[in-house]
Design brief:
Length: 577
Amino acid sequence: MKLSISEVEECHMDLFRQKRLIKTFYLILILFIPLIWHLGVIQLVHGQEYSERALDQRTLKVALEDIPRGNILDRNGETLSGGQREPRILVFPPIITDKQAVIDKLALILDQKPQDLAPYFKGQPRYLPFPLTYNQTLAVNELNILGLRVEQVNFRYGPSPLAAHVIGHLGYISDIGRLDRLNSLSHKKYTLSDLVGQSGLEYFYEQQLKAASPANFARAYVDVYHHLIAGLGIKVENSANTGRQDVITTLDAHIQQVVEQVMDQRVHRGAVVVMDAQTGDLLAMASRPNFNPANIAKSLPGDNDTFLDHCTALYQPGSIFKIVVAAAALEEGLVKPGDIFVCLGEKDHLVSCWHKPGHGPITFEEAFAQSCNPVFAELGLKLGAAKIISYARAFGLESQSIIGYPIPRDKRQNMSLIGKPYNLVNSSIGQGPVLATPVQLTAMLNTIINDGVYIQPRLVKELKTEKGEVTRSFPLGSSHKVISSGTARELKRLMGLVTSQGVGREAMVPGYGSAGKTGSAQVANGVSTVNAWFCGYAPLEHPRYVVTVLVEEGVSGGESAAPVFREIMEGILPTSR
């Protein structure tokens, strides 16, 4: 059958229309793909979030915690911040009809002025800041007022938090630039009203600690007129997943508490570090002057270093550094315990001795026990700067790294300065350019306890979700051999002489024994006080703890720091053996 021209043209037009429809279909499909994708993302990825936002818009909500964040815990899961749950009055202003009558009744119960309570009854729901006694709680509940109820609120910081300088403190976001940086680093949403970490673990683990929502909250289900919906009312609810993580430290809350109690009585300014003698884990770190993270404004007594962590700050270690010189001299075969030296006291040609009349003829082991300066100055010259620098570095006195605690490096610490002209003699007794932190000195002494093996100190063990799942672990520190086992054994014997018959007798722990080294570092010319040190361990046999004590503005290591060491050891070692 032969088609006419008009029929052929009609067929061509039909094909053209079909192709055009197909192209239009695909074009529309292409245009709708992003929309379909976006709808899928909203539903599958952000569905829960948008659902919660919509619910928040239709209800009234009060968080039952002051700062939604993960916890900072000790090695046994105890909180270090001292956080606790306390009863508070929840106020839902839109629900309360006769606000003034409610204010007047509460003022009588709380012993507050009505005008002081009035601001809390405007705007958004909240909890009142006033602590409640048991009787006050009963009285508020007996009022039976809609929009008013008592619930337990979780507070992050208690009256006596532990390890405040390690925990750090919070503060508001200071500027838009930091707000943008925080939002760019995390999928969690930050606003200028958020409290964020300013120092310590609160700062280093800000992204992990921050919660996307409170763990517990009270929600009032209301209609458009702010009337409670029958059958729903006000309910306490829990968030399924707040996104927060807990930081598990190596600290021991009991040991930390003992340390802080002793420091409150004996150390106005200084630091104490306690280390596990086997693992290198930091069990306590306390710094003075102290502050309470719960109320930073009241923690500022006009002291410039209130927030300084003295445990990780640099100081001249004084005679504690003689351990390094002694280790190098013994390891290099330059001295034996019975070798005799001569100390002329303040008239010595190298450096004056603290014992002004002089020790006269004195053996090396006696010089160690009595912390005789001229003997160690002479040994330092024999060793030379290069050897002392090498051993100091091997003992970790240039490593400021603490596992899980990424503090910025202080560039002032530079052992190579020992080799500069006129520095060697003063460096040999821990003065001059020699600088070290209490944590570093603790790890140095722990090297001797562990048969000459240095172990890197550790402060954080792991991070956990609120469900207990470990998201990151921090293994024990790396180690390396510094001195032979024989040299380490001899140094332990010498440090035992310090506490049994030398200048550190006040550090002897009854029933356990102890060993260590005193140090007294001059602060400045014309100042009678010193930075007083004692760095030691106990028990004498099978050591468990290494403790470094720094007492700023002290008299001497033996008089100011050694008794603090003994008292701490008596508090943390078992009372019966």
